[in-house]
Amino acid sequence: MKKLKVYIAIGLDGYIATKEGNIDWLTGFPNPEGTDYGYTDFLATIDTTFIGNSTYKDILILSETFPYPDKTNYVFTRDATQQNTEFVQFISKGITAFVREIKAGSGKDIWLVVGGQLNGALLQEDLIDEMIIHIIPVVLGDGIPLFGGIAMEKIFKPTATKTYSSGVLELHYAR
């Protein structure tokens, strides 16, 4: 069975982006070590991505080429008219059942690639198995919350922590 994992960065106040979806605070954050914060190692553990539609649109703007061509990629959207592409299949209905079906499959794990609303919806359904959260020492004051502002209580067990010289704190949690 595959695990659904969140690998993400947040500000100190729990936001993943500004209200407008801007992540300049993250991409412009000083990284004197030139570290990838475990990204390469994490990417090697997954073969599937789940992406929210807004995040997908941002990826297309930020990247000259689609960054995960070697993965199976699903974009969740409310727009049932979106056409699949070479690297992406769009999912607009039965999201919870679809996620359960993919998780039941074999292979490497699944990366829930950002999307506050999608994060919240899948957390609410107890579908997230692990989280690797990088806390960036920046206060945004307002923005898109990590779990879409859905009020719920879910308990995870801390499994590891790492501190970087840049001030970034990496936290690992599991169900």
UniProtKB/TrEMBL annotation:
Q: Which Gene3D superfamilies match?
A: Dihydrofolate Reductase, subunit A (3.40.430.10)
Gene Ontology BP terms? riboflavin biosynthetic process
- Occurrences of domain Bacterial bifunctional deaminase-reductase C-terminal (ranges): 5-168
What Gene Ontology terms describe what this protein does at the molecular function level? Answer: 5-amino-6-(5-phosphoribosylamino)uracil reductase activity
Which PANTHER family has this protein been placed in? 2,5-DIAMINO-6-RIBOSYLAMINO-4(3H)-PYRIMIDINONE 5'-PHOSPHATE REDUCTASE, DIHYDROFOLATE REDUCTASE FAMILY PROTEIN (AFU_ORTHOLOGUE AFUA_8G06820)
The protein, known as: Dihydrofolate reductase
Q: Which organism is it from?
A: Chitinophaga niastensis
Q: What is the lineage of its organism?
A: Bacteria, Pseudomonadati, Bacteroidota, Chitinophagia, Chitinophagales
